[in-house]
Design brief:
single chain; about 190 residues; alpha/beta; Rossmann fold; seven-stranded parallel β-sheet
Length: about 190
């Protein structure tokens, strides 16, 4: 069984600002607040790609509820994080600078997370999903959040690849997180 004294790390992978559908921003922002509040209420640590959009909104909601947030940056330094990648400097309490670029950062995101939540998303979140799927992670898919989240069932069907990943689907952030945490607590 998993050591219950270790706080679970919940990675939130999703749409950055440039991939958010304009007509859905208010609804998705509310979903982000609910997910962030749920992460903090369950004493989990929030891990993101230190980016904009939905991951940033979730991270800010976690912080507003006194939770801990970690951002994994593709940059080598704060200067590169801000000026090259155009990412916010205040997106997390702790930012880890990998210097690995976007794809390398995605691997660190997934490997640093006990649970991976797919929230909306475009190409980057798809990359993060495939890493999590291949590596057998516990994955929660926030259905109805648009982007690749709404196509994960089809993607899995197309791949026809068996892994040890455990995937949960729900339209409510709180119940999705509870399903994932229950699965995590059962891990040997």
């Amino acid at each position: 069984m998993r050591d219950q004294s270790i706080r679970p790390k919940v990675g939130v992978m999703g749409s950055a600002n440039d991939t958010l559908p304009s007509g859905e921003k208010v609804r998705l922002a509310e979903m982000a607040k609910q997910l962030g509040a749920s992460i903090a209420a369950r004493d989990c640590i929030c891990v993101t790609g230190a980016t904009t959009g939905l991951p940033e909104l979730v991270s800010r909601a976690v912080r507003n509820h006194k939770g801990l947030t970690i951002g994994i940056s593709p940059a080598i330094s704060l200067d590169e994080h801000i000026n090259r990648y155009k990412l916010p400097a205040d997106c997390a309490e702790v930012i880890i600078f990998t210097g690995f670029g976007l794809k390398g950062r995605n691997v660190i995101n997934i490997r640093s997370s006990d649970i991976v939540i797919i929230f909306g998303g475009a190409m980057g979140a798809l990359n993060e999903f495939t890493i999590a799927y291949d590596e057998g992670k516990i994955i929660g898919v926030l259905e109805g959040s648009g982007g690749i989240a709404d196509y994960i069932r089809e993607i899995i069907g197309f791949t026809n690849k068996a892994t040890r990943a455990r995937i949960f689907f729900d339209q409510a952030a709180e119940s999705l997180l509870d399903l994932c945490l229950k699965a995590l607590s059962a891990v040997d």
